[in-house]
Amino acid sequence: MREVAVIGVGMIKWGELWEKSLRSIFVEAAMNAIEDAGVDRIDSMYVGCMSSGLFVGQEHLGALLADYLGIAPIPATRIESACASGGAAFRQGFIEVASGLSDIVLVGGVEKMTDVSGGGATFALSTAADQEYEVYNGVTFPGLYAMMARAHMERYGTTRKQLALVAVKNHDNGSKNPHAQYQMKVSVDQVINSVMIADPLTILDCSPITDGAAAVVICPLELARKISKKPVVKVTGSGAATDAIAVHQRKDITHLAAAEEAAQRAYKMAGIKPSDIDLAEVHDCFTIAEICAIEALGFVETGKGGPATEAGETAIGGRIPVNPSGGLKSKGHPVGATGVAQICEVVTQLRGEAGERQVEGAKLGLTQNMGGTCASCVVHILEVA
Amino acid sequence: MREVAVIGVGMIKWGELWEKSLRSIFVEAAMNAIEDAGVDRIDSMYVGCMSSGLFVGQEHLGALLADYLGIAPIPATRIESACASGGAAFRQGFIEVASGLSDIVLVGGVEKMTDVSGGGATFALSTAADQEYEVYNGVTFPGLYAMMARAHMERYGTTRKQLALVAVKNHDNGSKNPHAQYQMKVSVDQVINSVMIADPLTILDCSPITDGAAAVVICPLELARKISKKPVVKVTGSGAATDAIAVHQRKDITHLAAAEEAAQRAYKMAGIKPSDIDLAEVHDCFTIAEICAIEALGFVETGKGGPATEAGETAIGGRIPVNPSGGLKSKGHPVGATGVAQICEVVTQLRGEAGERQVEGAKLGLTQNMGGTCASCVVHILEVA
Predict the structure, then answer these.
(1) What angle do CA B10, B16, B21 make, to 5 degrees?
(2) For A78, which of B80, B243, B257 is closest by C-beta distance?
(3) If exposure means fewest CB atoms within 10 Å of the residue's CB, which of A197, A212, A252, B322 is most exposed?
(4) Contact between B80 and A80 using a beta-carbon 8 Å cutoff
């Protein structure tokens, strides 16, 4: 397998983009990535998107977006793995470049969620869970993660305040990110006293509904060294894994087994251990999700995600900065775009271009993107080449 | 890139499978492929599916189906390219094995279309077209292909009878396929006099709404030679391409430019020319589609698809047998499964296991799977190793 590098990243401001369509936000992010990469051709494209069918009545995104980006007739394929669609799309691009089939590959992610008709955003998102055994019986994602939070609190003594502190930290980071949907800071009291969604999770424990897109350009490392005018970032590890889709079929609902498995595969490929990582973008779709994720990734011991957050270990400047971008919580969570945006943030950090939210001296970063309640997970490791 | 072989194929009887769910038909086909391959492990899985979100309210099929197949925690990813989802999924499996990342990969395709609620099957299928410029203005797929048929008749003198003869041939072939949804023969008169759908296309010019699944197991050629008890079939070419998604934006609506481009890429990789092909499974979603496809693939001259069909050149026993399985027309068209089933048929033919519909002496086969009105297309070339 050839070595692979990221040579371009493209973000746009995320939010409720009523005046823009799915195709226009995708093209905007993709053009930013192509411009950043400084390339004049694309050989193949992947698009991560969870549910454009239910959100905007449009499938066939590979062809649609290659057409609107003006790069047809190249191969263009849409990848879906619920909220991990972006990370999964990046993995497919990585595999294609590594295989030798294509040199310059564009990977984008997109989701247009605010102007949904029909069953609404909650129904569309619920299709990431087991429709027959979970959704039919009335559960929603806030409900599922609330159960995971309650179990974590019971078993490990995780406190309500510790959950809230994840939101406080990530909004603090997001306030320094011009692309973030919500750039306001929040306090522990504000989080705990905001509208209850599914006990113990209030609305400020939940990531928002977002319109957004993100894109990256990748190529063989050897080519990157020749053509890139920016610090080259190498993809040293890629791991993916699955788990029982329905939460009730898992041995331990507080443990993200697919995240652990995907991370172990990525660590092995990269030849590193969790303590080598300088910063991570993890999938904080709910505050409890970040606590479970940092445990599964091996950054903290099992059950210690709450205390580590409270001690500031995951803040910028802490032992292992998590979600310097603001995470899903503050930056927003256009589900198919999230995994690609995580790559954009890590590359930006490794290049030293993250401005106010820069993690000093970052050389090695990780992204963790999960689908549903982590029935699928994709982990990538990136390193300054 | 490593050489890749198909070592297992799995089909089920397609049709209106009211008593079975999406997950159960997928598992059935996958188990058939695994048993045929004789392997005891799977390293990675791809699932081709167009719109399970709109058809059955379920996304996240990679995780769901890996779980129900009992193969989690392996990586499992859903691929979507409208009606070319199956062919696109096969291509991703091919790339992953070729890259060296995984050895034994399962590629399945599935669609459950009959018990759809909400907007119905016609709406779900329409999401393969341009929602903003085509569907919003009232077009449907029968309407789009009817326009292509009218233009082909005007420009090249293609006759109504020639269109009908595609259906007659494919039903004739399908009558010999125990997995086909419709195993009855039809006559030219029956086709022409059946219910009008979109002039000139009647219902017997259209592929049906189908529940179905199909699966294959692939691995490196070197490994296949060691473990396979059946004739080994090598994947020698893989090509994919895109085109303007909206038909009105194309230079010539009778020409499937993406099919030509994908085929040229596949021929180049395989080092062959169209006349080397012994049989082909092509995407006959409508009778006119087969006529346009055999022209774009280079089997006949542009404009000569109708006369070639009338002369029996594409029948089993003809110069270039097309759709010996019965094609989408008779075998059925569960959109995400179609491209994988095409691979199953070609492998079955190349192994000499196709029974009554066997193409004698077949050594080299081609599959052509397209999305929408061929805004995306995937072509594969398979050869007895």
Answers:
(1) 65
(2) B80
(3) A252
(4) yes
Closest CA to B36 of B212, B235, B218, B178: B218
CA distances from B147 to B125, B152, B153, B289, B293 (A): 18, 9, 10, 11, 16
Do the strands A105-111 and A44-48 form a parallel or antiparallel pair, or are they unpaired?
A: parallel
State the complex-level ipTM: 0.98
CA distance B338 to B334: 6
Torsion sign, CA atoms B248, B252, B254, B259: negative
B292 is catalytic: no
Contact B305, B279 (CB under 8 A): no
CB contact under 8 A, A75 and B241: yes
Cβ count near B289 (within 10 Å):
29
- The DSSP secondary structure of A121-167, one letter per residue, reads HHHHHHTTS-TTTTGGGT--HHHHHHHHHHHHHHHH---HHHHHHHH
Answer yes or no: are the C-beta atoms of A58 and B136 closer than 8 Å.
Answer: no
How would you write the pLDDT of chain B (385 residues) with one tens digit per residue? 999 999 999 999 999 999 999 999 999 999 999 999 999 999 999 999 999 999 999 999 999 999 999 999 999 999 999 999 999 999 999 999 999 999 999 999 999 999 886 668 989 999 999 999 999 999 999 999 999 999 999 999 999 999 999 999 999 999 999 999 999 999 999 999 999 999 999 999 999 999 999 999 999 999 999 999 999 999 999 999 999 999 999 999 999 999 999 999 999 999 999 999 999 999 999 999 999 999 999 999 999 999 999 999 999 999 999 999 999 999 999 999 999 999 999 999 999 999 999 999 999 999 999 999 999 999 999 999 9
Residue of A92, A78, A9 lying closest to A49 (CA atoms): A78
**Cα–Cα distance measured from residue A361 to residue A377, given in angstroms and rounded to the nearest whole number:** 28
Q: Which two tokens stand for residue B131?
A: 């929602």
